[in-house]
């Protein structure tokens, strides 16, 4: 009879790639991001 | 579509910096699988991978838009480096706040909460394993048992063991080898799983 102290079976998952929502979010983030440079300073704003 | 497949990363980055948002979409689509798989291979968790993938490209976008990206024709290695650094940050954070996961679907709060009893339990398991290993060692032939004890418990070098037992180093090594083989045989025979 097996003498078990610890048993853990890792779940096998094949990565399918990022969700479409994540890619959409990134594209929207890029569109909304506005970068302004004033003298030595850089300002970032998100325009939703 | 044909243009998307043939345009280099460098050109797409330049187009993006000129305000062509669709170039970013092409860059993400082109490299998403590779970057996602890279992150997943390190963290082995889909949700965490998704978060790190998102953070990677947020950093990419911000760096590009701030004009801090030096194009050297190495867009993908640069993105991979950002992803790699974010994976390291993730593990650093997790080291401070360890996450426990269970193979069972049932969530048990005691899997997550760490207390003094848990370490005591681990100590007990460790002690039990050590006792069982000692019992298995007792079953070995005397010459093999002697070498194994000297090596594993007294931390002696094979040269010292050879001198102490009045045999050559090769003989001492051979006895150690057979001791380990025999231990494995006994473990397999009795279906014993020694895990701590």
Write the layout of secondary structure elements.
The complex is a heterodimer of chains A (48) and B (196).
Chain A: H1 20-32, E1 33-38, E2 41-46
Chain B: H1 2-6, H2 9-17, H3 21-43, H4 46-65, H5 75-96, H6 109-112, H7 116-138, H8 142-152, H9 158-165, H10 169-189
Helix pairs in contact in B: 2-3, 3-4, 3-5, 4-5, 8-10, 9-10
Question: Care to describe what's here?
Answer:
- The complex is a heterodimer of chains A (48) and B (196).
- By secondary structure, chain A is an alpha+beta fold.
- Chain A has a domain of 30 residues.
- Chain A has a two-stranded antiparallel sheet with strand order 1-2.
- Chain A is elongated, with a radius of gyration of 23 Å.
- The mean pLDDT of chain A is 78.
- Chain B has 2 domains: 95 residues, Rna Polymerase Sigma Factor, Chain: A (Orthogonal Bundle); 71 residues, Orthogonal Bundle (Arc Repressor Mutant, subunit A), CATH 1.10.10.10.
- Chain B has 10 helices and no strands.
- In chain B, 16% of the residues are buried.
- Chains A and B meet through helix 1 and strand 1 of A and helix 3, helix 4 and helix 7 of B.
- Chain B: Belongs to the sigma-70 factor family. ECF subfamily.
- Chain B: This is Sigma-70 family RNA polymerase sigma factor.
- Chain B: Keywords: DNA-binding, Sigma factor, Transcription, Transcription regulation.
């Amino acid at each position: 009879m097996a003498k078990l102290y610890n048993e853990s079976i890792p779940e096998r998952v094949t990565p399918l790639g990022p969700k479409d929502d994540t890619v959409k979010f990134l594209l929207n983030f890029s569109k909304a991001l506005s970068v302004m440079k004033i003298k030595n300073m850089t300002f970032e704003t998100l325009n939703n | 579509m044909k243009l998307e497949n043939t345009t280099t990363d460098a050109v797409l980055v330049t187009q993006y910096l000129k305000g062509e948002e669709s170039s970013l979409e092409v860059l993400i689509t082109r490299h998403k699988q590779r970057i996602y798989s890279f992150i997943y291979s390190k963290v082995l968790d889909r949700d965490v991978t998704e978060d790190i993938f998102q953070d990677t490209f947020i950093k990419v976008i911000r760096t590009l838009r701030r004009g801090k990206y030096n194009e050297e024709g190495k867009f993908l290695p640069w993105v991979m480096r950002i992803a790699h650094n974010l994976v390291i940050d993730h593990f650093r954070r997790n080291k401070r706040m360890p996450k426990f996961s269970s193979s069972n679907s049932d969530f048990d709060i005691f899997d997550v909460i760490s207390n003094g009893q848990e370490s005591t339990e681990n100590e007990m398991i460790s002690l039990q394993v050590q006792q069982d290993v000692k019992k298995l060692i007792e079953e070995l032939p005397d010459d093999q048992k002697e070498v194994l004890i000297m090596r594993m418990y007294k931390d002696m070098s094979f040269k010292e063991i050879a001198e102490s037992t009045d045999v050559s180093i090769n003989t001492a090594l051979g006895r150690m080898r057979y001791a380990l083989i025999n231990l494995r045989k006994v473990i397999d025979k009795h279906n014993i799983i020694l895990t701590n």
